[in-house]
# Entry
Amino acid sequence: MSIVIKNLKKSYGDQIIFDDFNLVLQEKKITGILGPSGAGKTTLLNLCCGLEKPDSGTIEGINPTSISYIFQEPRLLPWRTIRENLRFVFKGQSIKKSGSHDKEIDEMLRLVGLDTVGDYYPQELSGGMRQRVAIARAFLYPSELLLMDEPFSSLDLTLKNKLMGDFLKIWEQDKRTVVFVSHNQEEIKQLSHEVLTFSDKPVRILKKETIY
Amino acid sequence: MMISTKLQNKQIQSLIKIGKKIGVALFWVLLWAAAAWWVDSSLVLPSPLDTLKGIITLSGDFKFFVSIGVTLLRVFGGVTISVALGLVLGLIGGLNKPFYEIMNPFVSIIKSLPVVSVIILINLWIASGVVPLVVTFLICFPVTWTNVVQGVHATDDNLLQMAKVYNVSQQRIIRDIYIPAVKPYAVSALMNAIGLGWKVTVTAEVLANALPSVGMNLYYSKIYLETDLLFSWTFVIVMCSYIIEKVTLYIIERNKRKGADQCQLS
# Structure
């Protein structure tokens, strides 16, 4: 089911971010959103996942309990091991003890090349490794919608390419509706099926491109 | 070879550190001794030797240990109850605004009340022996409450947002995000409460005539003009407070190291 955004309005004080904004996001495709910093790309993601509420308008086709989010920073619990961080998002799964999801977790850790560091703490890993854990967490969580807010922006070029490759590999195995936000054209074009270019506030779609 | 040299260096450094501490302590004891020699009246300022003799005399009496034991119980009781309740109610207050708004005026009033007023008032209502415990609780509870509420409010919003998106239960958010985030604040509150607890308990014991107690022994030393014993009791209080603080710190550090060792092992 596609995600349909209708007549969306959102403002912060006098600043109007969205004013009668409409958009349809294709199901099981990666939609890339380009735009200047502060245009409202992250706000759109936050509105989609319920972290922020619209002033008016509707977002249809989203099950609020079925959303994964890869943030700009990995957002891992520093006092929990990598494996425990991944167990954290599973309902009914003990964080400390192994359980029914451990097989999936091990498989995902292997897929992102982190099978040897499951018992490490986040601060013992590099920035790139931590971000890979965030990707693993997003795919492990049973979601229909995956939101990504510049998840590769803090990484160097080699690591970025490797991670984007890993991401596509996992997505091919487990296709979900993805909304990927960035201000980096190359990143967006490399990953997305469709690219939308946002204007500055209030947001308008300047360009719509289908990549493949 | 290199490891053993490193170990030796570490041992030498820790020996130097201990030597420095002993040197500083000796300096102050010598200064005290010089002042006592200059004053030349043990009634006004007893010497370190007089104080030591006082401690030896006191420790020959079983009542000395009973007084310390009972005072210790009051300190532990007051601090434990205030820290435990401060943790639970502070967590609730940090998470629940109406509860915070109900509790906050009460905590603010207790915080601004002079300790002496609290002691005298409580003494009107309850038995003398229990007064120090209740007063310690009333003085230490706001410290823990305030720290824990601050800890909850300072919890990383990014982690909370992540948990919300992933539909993590409130129970798990409290256990795995709030409680670990509040831990450093709770430890700091505990250390403050221990420091405060001793001072408040002994003061309350004096003002409430609580028996048996270290506080009342201090008071008797004062009214019988036994200044050397007054110093001995004060020294005992300082040592007890110091030892408890160090033991608590050791336990906290050991727990921290346990966590770090788990990291290393993995």
The beta strands of chain A are 3-12, 15-25, 30-34, 56-60, 67-70, 145-149, 177-182, 194-198, 205-210. The interface with chain B takes residues 49-51, 64-65, 67-69, 71, 73, 75, 77, 79-81, 88-89, 91, 95, 119-121, 124, 137, 141, 147 of chain A (CB under 8 Å). Helices of chain A lie at 41-49, 82-87, 102-111, 127-140, 157-173, 185-191.
